[in-house]
Amino acid sequence: MKKIIALILTTLAIATLFTGCGKKNQTDLEYVKEKGTLIVGITDFEPMDYKKGSEWIGFDADLAKKFGKSLGVKVEFTEINWDNKVMELDGKQIDCVWNGMTLTDEVKNAMSTSEAYCNNSQVIVIKKGAKISDTAKEGDDFKGYKFAVEKGSAGKDMAEKYGYEYTEVDSQAKALMEVNAGTANCAIIDSLMAAAMVGEGTSYSNLKYTVSLNEELYGVGFRKNSDLTAKLNEFFKTAKEDGTMQAIAEQYKVQAALIK
Amino acid sequence: MSFSQQLPIVFEALNVGFLQTLKLFFVTLLGALPLGLLISFGSMSKFKPLSGLIKTVVWIVRGSPLMIQLLIIYYFPGLVFQNNIWGSGENGRFLAAAVSFIINYACYFSEIYRGGIQGVPKGQQEAGQVLGLKKNQIFFKITLLQMIKQIVPPMSNEIITLVKDTSLARIIALQEVIWAGEAFMKGSNGISGQIWPLFFTAVYYLAFNGILTLLFGKLEKKLSYFK
User: Fold this and answer.
1) Closest C-alpha to A244, from A74, A40, A71, A64
2) How many CB pairs under 8 A join A and B?
């Protein structure tokens, strides 16, 4: 008898853990205001979000702080596993993804996205002195080469579009490593990242980037049907008009990519 | 940036990461060692529904990947019940990881305990009864004592595996030592495209497991008084 009672009690204890206080009729804005924090999901991504000492700075981070201020809430940054960004949002571990995120169809389907604020493109990275580098002028010239791309990235979409033979790896950095190690001929990564990581005076000085495959846009992602998206679009509008956005962009040297 | 400039930065980041690894390791041990014993009692219970239930739970936990368990335990409450019970930020991630690891390792430990308890000859308990000891005295003073000696080698195996398994927690963005090492591949603290910090994390695991191996050797020697 004792055992049966113990069994019932444990089941009840577990059940109460999961029910609890999820208020269903609250809008996202009310939810964020009530708890007083906006939790921003990021990865370490210079110049958008990166650490200086213990503080997160960067073009995205600084703008996010300003946005939090306009809402009257504290901004908290939390590093996430990029593969799980949609789960992090829907599970309310974070309130938005603000990390130089390319607005792909997948992202737009899974999140409520803001208006674009930055331009970006996908570029092909190859080894310096590779035969192809003199002859290739456009994406189609790279057919038949082995590519490494980040899984779920805009680069992967490009590889599919051009019909390249590709392997999906964990991150853009691993894609570069594959080219460096010779396990792939080419990688497709963000132009912003390529500018920072590839070429003379960077950590991959023996690599270079060549053909640009597309034009794409950076945006911020919120939970589906969130009313925070409209709030951010308003904020972007005023930040563009009063010059705040331009000033921060110049501080982090991304003004060339900024959408006016 | 030259290697000698990188070294202190990388070293500091890896130390912070490894501290998180150690924290998860010790918290898991502290929780899983006693919980495993409880589960082993449950699976040996003569009350069939209880032992059946426990055996099913052990089957599920041992039979599915720890990585999936981490994802389910961390995201499931928020995704399905609209109630993220873990809170936000680093602490929530650690708590969810610790709970997943404790449940997972308690199930493995429980089977080792069961083997140890059932491996103590029945004659030992009978001798206790002849001496007029009570049931719990027989368990704690005779069975448990001899069981501990028997289970040291399999437990040391499992515990060393635990040290390395903590690296799985980075799937829910717990920033342990491998996460810290990988960060330099992409770019962190002004260092990017560096692969050696990731490989260097192995040194941390090796050193710590070396210490553990020595400790287990000593423990085994200390417990050799029965023979």
Assistant:
1) A64
2) 107
Q: Are B82 and A50 a contacting pair at CB < 8 A?
A: no
| Cα A197 → chain centroid | 17
At residue A16, the pLDDT reads 62
Select from B116, B105, B97, B103 the least CA-distant residue to B158: B105
Average pLDDT for residues B18-30, to the nearest whole number?
Answer: 97
The segment with the largest mean pLDDT, out of A82-96, A117-131, B99-113, is B99-113
> Among candidates A104, A89, A77, A130, which has minimal Cα distance to A226?
A89
Q: Which residues contact A197 (CB under 8 A, 6 or more apart)?
A: A173, A176, A203, A204, B187, B192, B193
- Cβ-defined contact of B194 to A203 (cutoff 8 Å): yes
Nearest to A17 among B85, B89, B188 (CB): B85
Range of the domain at B124: 3-226
pLDDT confidence bin for A171, thresholds 50/70/90: confident
CB-CB neighbors (< 8 A) of A190 in chain B: none
Q: What number is the average pLDDT over the span B161-166?
A: 97
Count how many residues are written for chain A. Answer: 260
CA distance A201 to A203: 7
pLDDT at A21 over 60: no
pLDDT digits (tens, 9 = 90+) for B112-138: 999 999 999 999 999 999 999 998 999
Give this prediction's pTM: 0.81
- CB distance A84–B75 less than 8 Å? yes
> Using CB atoms, which residue from B47, B75, B84 is nearest to A3?
B47
pLDDT band at A3 (very low <50, low <70, confident <90, very high): low
Of A87, A197, A202, the CB nearest to B79: A87
CA angle B97, B100, B103 (to 5 degrees): 145
Q: Which among B173, B182, B193 has CB closest to A80?
A: B173
Please report the domains of chain A, with CATH numbers, ordered by start residue: 26-119+217-257 (3.40.190.10), 122-214 (3.40.190.10)
Q: Looking at chain B from residue 29 to 88, which residues have their Cβ under 8 Å from any Cβ of chain A?
A: 45, 47, 49-50, 53, 71, 74-79, 81-86, 88
What is the number of structural domains in chain B? Answer: 1
The CATH code of the domain that includes B123 is: 1.10.3720.10
For position B191, what pLDDT does the model report? 82
CB of A5 within 8 Å of a chain B CB? The answer is: no
Chain A, nearest residue to B186 by Cα = A173
More confident residue, A232 or A54: A232
Interface contact flag, A197 B89, Cβ < 8 Å? no
